[in-house]
Amino acid sequence: MWTPGLLGTRDGRRGGVRRGRRWAEPMARTKRYGVAASGRWWDEEDNRRLPAGEVHAWERGMNETVCGLSLHRSQLLRFPGVAWTDVLPESGGAADAVRRVCPRCAAAAARGGAGERPRRRHIDPRP
Predict the structure, then answer these.
(1) For the chain, what are the domain ranges?
(2) DSSP state for residue 62 in the 8-state scheme
């Protein structure tokens, strides 16, 4: 069965969805970032390991952080079960042993989270 946006359009264009008279891009999904950190510690209350030291945002399935550091070369540990918003100091979640949040990862992963203003969208930009 043909679905717009997943298999392309019927006339061969990739990824567009017909809305009215114009072709628009499919709506972007919000990315969920995991955490990569330089250290770890054991939380005895939750019985799980949590990030410590310097933390970076990391997309699952990728071998590098959002700011471009290689996980292997930088010797960063992956924490796929910890959400990026939990390691921010203002959240108070898993941020007990976090010493530094990478500013480039924080900017790319939208540090504000759900309360942030929506980004600008150019629906019909001028040439």
Answers:
(1) 34-112
(2) -
CA angle 89, 92, 97 (to 5 degrees): 65
What lies within 8 Å, CB to CB, of 110 at 6+ separation is 116
Nearest residue to 98 (alpha-carbon basis) of 114, 85, 115: 85
pTM of the model: 0.64
Q: What is the pLDDT of residue 116?
A: 57
Residue the block writes with tokens 């043909």: 2
CB 45 within 8 A of CB 37: no
Cα–Cα distance, 97 to 79 (Å, whole number): 14
* C-alpha R_g of the chain: 19
Q: Could you report the per-residue pLDDT of 43-76, keeping only the tens digit for each?
A: 888 888 999 999 999 988 889 999 999 999 999 9
